[in-house]
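User: Once you have settled down, look closely at the record that follows, taking as long as you need, and be ready to discuss the fold:
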Amino acid sequence: MTLFTFFYLCVALIVYILAIPFLILLSFKQKYRLSIPKRFFLFKNPPFEKKGIWFHVASFGEVRSLKPLISRLTSDINITTITQTGFEEAGKITKNNRYLPYELLLPFWVREQKALVVSEAELWYMLFLIAKLKGAKTYLINARISDNSYKSYLKFSWFYKKIFSNIDMVFAQSEKDKKRLLELGAKNIVVNGNIKAYQEIEVTKDFKKPNREVITLASTHKGEEKLIFDNLEVEQGKQYIVVPRHPERFDEVDRFLTSFSKTHGLSYHRFTKTDNLESDIVLIDCLGELINLYAISDKVILGGSFVDKIGGHNPLEPAHFGCKIVSGKYIFNQEALFSLVDGIEIIEIEELNDMLKKVKPSKITSSIEIDSIVEALNHG
């Protein structure tokens, strides 16, 4: 064990001890009821039984983007996630799905794997180190360094060099990402675009297209619903479908939309209470329907882009159906995907109402190949 690793584990232990009371309190919240006991106390979260290719991703969207890649692999698949929605989606791919334990617990939890494949910016020092010590080849796929986080990465470049010393190969989203990753100590970098551009976009439920214009507010985050509706000229002849990004916000959004619809004389309902799309405003308070809704949408307002925190969401899904797409300017986490689509309008929120009248249908202009990743994982 190096001096740095010993020091890192000591700090992790101190943080863990200090955090225990807060973790116990948080575990009573619905959002963390499953994840905290499993991640921080290994409650019903055993190590993987089979040696295979171990994928680690953060959340729901990243898990979905892996499906086309995983379908082409020949080894057993193991998946760890951090969020509850990601965990549930991973369970649709493999029964070998787990919550990723806290770093301090990884030396006792990780067993030998053929490879560790980590997506995007999940750069955990102990995760890569322990996987390497247990004999796994280590890969970072869909790697990116956004404009917003670049300066922060540089300030701690000495630390990221430690992480990248345990990563065998990196698949980056763009040449700009490659340059930045090299500065941080990454090696063996291949640029192959954003893997989300390769994902299968499939309708799983056919909704009847309403006989009016459908505007979908997609993957909205806290504060965005009010921000968007405050800048919309809401009309009786149109339908507004609201799809919040996180399930724990469904009740909060419901309260806002109930008040808003009454004030504006519009009909409204929650989708899980009335399983149809007949009201003027519909809250989609369940997961897995967004692609099905894009298929009947005329216009899409992409959330996660009107507040300077999230960095935007995937535009390829609505573009697949030729939707007219409007997005806020905060798309720093999705720039590679936005570059693959023509027709998206990037706006200030005050321009929303006027732009919805002028926006044109979107179109996907190119995609990526993932053969290089498949080859590396299948043949090591």
The chain is about 35% helix and 20% strand. The mean pLDDT is 94.
